[in-house]
Amino acid sequence: MSDPNNPNITSRSTPQWSLMQRELFWAANEGKHPPLNTDPDKLKELARDRLSKAGWLYSSCNAGQSWTHYANRLAFYRHQIIPRTLVDTTERDTATTIFGHKVSAPFGFAPIGINRIYHPTGELSPAKVAAELNLPYCLSSAGSYSIEDTASANGPNGVRFFQLYWSPDDQVVVSMLERAAKSGYSVCMLTTDTWQLGWRHDDVAMGNYAFYHEHGAGDLGLQDPAFLERVKEAKLDPEKDKFDVGAKWIDENIWHGHSFSWSRLPWLMQQWERVSGGKPFVIKGIQNVADARKAVEMGVDGIVVSNHAGRQVDGAIGSLDALEKIVDAVGDKTYIMFDSGIRGAADVFKALALGAKFVFIGRLWVWALGAAGEEGVRHVVRGLLAEFDIMMNVTGYPKVEDINRDAIDSLPKGTYFPGTPDLT
Predict the structure, then answer these.
(1) Which of 69, 79, 119, 308 is catalytic?
(2) pTM for the whole thing?
(3) Homologous superfamily of 8-410 in CATH?
(4) How many CB atoms lie within 10 A of CB 313?
(5) Binding site annotation covers 111?
(6) Whole-angstrom distance, CA of residue 53 vs CA of residue 208
(7) 145 is in an annotated binding site
(8) 308 is catalytic
(9) Where do the structural domains in the chain lie, given as residue ranges?
(10) Biggest alpha carbon distance in the chain?
(11) Does the annotation list 93 as a binding residue?
(12) pLDDT tens track for 191-228
């Protein structure tokens, strides 16, 4: 969008995100330059340069040999966009609705834990930026800032979800859910693919586990009344026994190695319904068609098709390929969301075309946080909004709901990237 007086500016319900392109082109005349390059590969390299080695490895590593990560990126390459031409995009708008919330675009902030290893402001910066841009923000229960402080940063009008790692301690579970509901989190997102962390070579090699070291239990754990009672019972002091308390939090409540089955799910859903007054409950980590059908049968309000960005199971199916099958099976029966491998607007577009209603981004905003703090997050996510707005214009799709499988042509499975893949 180069014409700042284009009628699309006044006809839409969201800002003219694409004007950011004009703003940055013109800024050079005034000697101004952006804080960083939004190209994901250049962003990744900048984050590598600026983060500590531990922070970089945790943000970038994948399970095993990274083959699932490669499968994610390969799937985006395999599915290719078919632009339309001479389509009137004067009424173009990036807005969509998720669980009753009208938001700026069909993407938001994926839940990612322990953000203080990327920047001292941790979860507070992405939560603040998400509210400014009217995009959903999802707080991980492995976060480093508290449920309450992150909600405050997200503000009274922020759209925020709470991602739960299901603790074997029922009192801790209920306590976290109560805190989330009281703090205005409007969706509970249960992650089901991470009872414990996948084997990540680099993290294991350097003992890279922040909860055992400098960050301990983080504010999220240390402000939980039920967990603090467990600390007291164990005769631990959160100040003097920081590492032991951190281990107790993460080992017994977050990545604990226990597991749960479908038979236990109704109890958890009932707890969230009780404390939240009936707000939506969704499951994250679905890759299997049978699991998607079971989730629908159990009455969840939505599912997130995700393989944890390749960080849990090495050699698994690409999440975008799983999405295609799951949409065919249950696409008209529940609200389907997607994450894993998103690097730009084209990836968002492809996931929507294959049937996702909403998409979560992760490493993009994490690398931006590590590279340039809050300013970096704001710049990169604004850039993604601008790129998506432009993508809708140049592909001839004026409304998010217009994007469907007619917009996609798929190469056969077994197609490979040209050149050597980067598996980070």
Answers:
(1) 308
(2) 0.95
(3) Aldolase class I (3.20.20.70)
(4) 17
(5) yes
(6) 9
(7) no
(8) yes
(9) 8-410
(10) 71
(11) no
(12) 999 999 999 999 999 998 888 988 888 899 999 999 99
